[in-house]
Amino acid sequence: MPDTLPDTLPADSVGIVTSRRVAIERPLALACGVVLDSHQLEVECYGQLNRRGDNAILICHALSGHHHAAGYHRGDSRPGWWEHYIGPGKPIDTERFYVVCPTNIGSCFGSTGPLTENPATGQPWAAEFPPLRARDWVNSQRLLMDELGVSRWAAVVGGSLGGMQAMRWSLEYPELLDHCVVIASAMKLSAQNIAFNEIARRAIKSDPDFYDGQYAQHNTSPQRGLALARMIGHVTYLSDELMGQKFGRELRLGDFATGSASPVQFEIESYLNHQGDKFSGAFDANSYLLITKMLDYFDLARAYDNDAVAAFRRARCGFQVISFSSDWRFAPARSREIVQALVAAGRDVCYCEIESDQGHDAFLLPNRRYQEALGTYLARAAQAVEARP
Amino acid sequence: MPDTLPDTLPADSVGIVTSRRVAIERPLALACGVVLDSHQLEVECYGQLNRRGDNAILICHALSGHHHAAGYHRGDSRPGWWEHYIGPGKPIDTERFYVVCPTNIGSCFGSTGPLTENPATGQPWAAEFPPLRARDWVNSQRLLMDELGVSRWAAVVGGSLGGMQAMRWSLEYPELLDHCVVIASAMKLSAQNIAFNEIARRAIKSDPDFYDGQYAQHNTSPQRGLALARMIGHVTYLSDELMGQKFGRELRLGDFATGSASPVQFEIESYLNHQGDKFSGAFDANSYLLITKMLDYFDLARAYDNDAVAAFRRARCGFQVISFSSDWRFAPARSREIVQALVAAGRDVCYCEIESDQGHDAFLLPNRRYQEALGTYLARAAQAVEARP
């Protein structure tokens, strides 16, 4: 919740925020058949909920995201992961919307998952946490609505895996959202996407410190494997073009050395190794395995005889679909498939392909056209809420 | 050398072949400053060298290639890696050419490299083998010419890293080749290419069985890391389209399972894991590190003030450049850069972009247009040789 802002924080930030832990004491039936009698969600909320409880926006995070989407945690120099897009006067305008961002179950930032206690054993779930589907996240977020007094979402918004959740929301609870914003996403992963995820999982599982997921019992964690997994992901999130611009073929420590065991590195190598190491200290390997599997299994239309048009006929909300020209992990062609199915299903849809050289990462980064597109769409959503009697 | 063919071997195969080990007793000065007083190359040769010694074609292998390019080793059911393109009546026609394919130094199939003895220590070189550049392979191949009695190459031919060697040949020994065939290659790797190679290297080095490259002393090898490295490479050699066609999103062992620890896999996962495991039993990790570094460092024009046109002005041979439409590891755009530099340098060049959905792997696989393009070009090369007085 916003606190008094130190002078150094930017005026268009929600400022100092703290997360809250929401205990949900109602059962959550997972797609795999397991029922969680209760679960907890670590959540951040920005802005004020109106009396009708209908000016809320749900932010759906992606693979490695979490509840800290905007503002600053006390003492931190870096803000939340979507600070560019959430705040007063920003596209997701906290002066108009009540913005809700939970860490979803299965992840590792306070919500129920591999790191929290399995009530049946009194031990952390670790590798025994049940497999998850995107609809499990949606159903958990549905319960969260009631805890927060949200009556309907003015919009459900997400990028990448977050976009998959947003689409799933539009099918599972069509009456509970006005708008669905699907950014840099897809109705299902390609075989290549799955292949990269599988290599990442194998990197984790083949780390001798993995111990079949029971690494905590051995007071260790598969840091090497997780770092590799992140490096693989990271390369696929950047465009070849951007990597060329950012790193080129610059050498870090001089030129080709004489003799063996040269320490020379290209800048890109140094950067990637740093990214891998940083991530492996901050994320949980069992969560990474769970959530990449969720990504692989996501298939919007599977339950509709693989007919995406039939699926989207269930939806009632408006849609904005956004893609980025240099994104090869979730290419614009995947977004156009979504748009085509929405149009064929008679849905109201607005599509923007944003020029960007930032690859898949573009959905997290500043980009004027993207800000305008998202801001314009959500401003209309705000007007619709505010025009209600 | 061809032997009597069993009835079961195809008539257009060079048949049963055996490799020979060629001892080169002249010094080889490597780019890093180390001098190898002598070295050995494991070589296969197909066809007959003419009296002038000028009907020879040098086959340059890529990252994981070796001397066994065509025909069958006795008892093997699978032929050499370029069987589709080398043989009687094939594009690299063994009835007209004397075809030479060495395993290059630093690799792990009999030629001098990490697995062979370092004369200074009496022990295998292992991680102490000096770093290599593509020009070191070219200089070794130059010495091999003399051992085999080859006076000039009718063509130097290679795909991927093999194409880099072929281009280097055209600059280092311009008077010693008539034609240079550069397939699915590039004048230098992109930052993204380097990034994938670095992740592969890190997978190997972070395997606890790597022991700083001295794994043989510990009677082990970093199989897990090498398998991961191969899986990463493999995904980048295939096109997204082909993976979709070949594997789609088919599940291997049933559908999404109930409860935890699901054994369910997509077909692509099973395939990739198999490829990784197969490779890690057949290749040496130190060789993989050496040769990926060679790939990363290759930069055709670095010694020519980064001016590729100036570089190619040194060349005297004709060029054929071939790329494949779905190859994203060595994209057609990289081949067009080669062609543009060759044209600007006034060289004779023929360029073919072949339609293929096979990705980078296309250069190894059957493709009628590719066979025609290569065959037509090399038939002219043969005619030129045969027309000499």
Structural class of chain A: alpha/beta
User: Share of helix among residues of chain A?
Assistant: 25-40%
Beta-strand percentage of chain A?
A: 15-25%
Total number of helices of chain A: 10
Largest interface pair: A-B, 57 and 56 residues
Radius of gyration of chain A: 21 Å
Q: In one word, what is the shape of chain A? A: globular
Protein name (chains A, B): Homoserine O-succinyltransferase
Binding site for substrate (chains A, B): 230, 361
Keywords (chains A, B): Acyltransferase, Amino-acid biosynthesis, Cytoplasm, Methionine biosynthesis, Transferase
Subcellular location (chains A, B): Cytoplasm
Describe this protein's structure.
Two copies of one chain form a homodimer. With 389 residues, chain A is of the alpha/beta class. The first copy, chain A, folds into two domains: 20-188 and 303-386, Rossmann fold, CATH 3.40.50; 194-292, Rna Polymerase Sigma Factor, Chain: A. Chain A contains ten helices and 14 strands. Chain A has helices at residues 134-148, 161-172, 191-205, 223-237, 240-247, 267-280, 285-297, 308-313, 332-344, 368-386, and strands spanning 20-24, 28-29, 35-36, 39-46, 56-60, 86-87, 92-93, 98-102, 117-118, 123-124, 153-159, 179-183, 318-324, 349-354. In chain A, strands 1-4-8-5-11-12-13-14 form an eight-stranded mixed sheet, sandwiched between helices. In chain A, α2 links the parallel β11 (153-159) and β12. In chain A, α3 runs antiparallel to α4, α3 (191-205) packs antiparallel against α7 and α4 packs across α6 (267-280). The interface between A and B is large, with 57 and 56 residues.
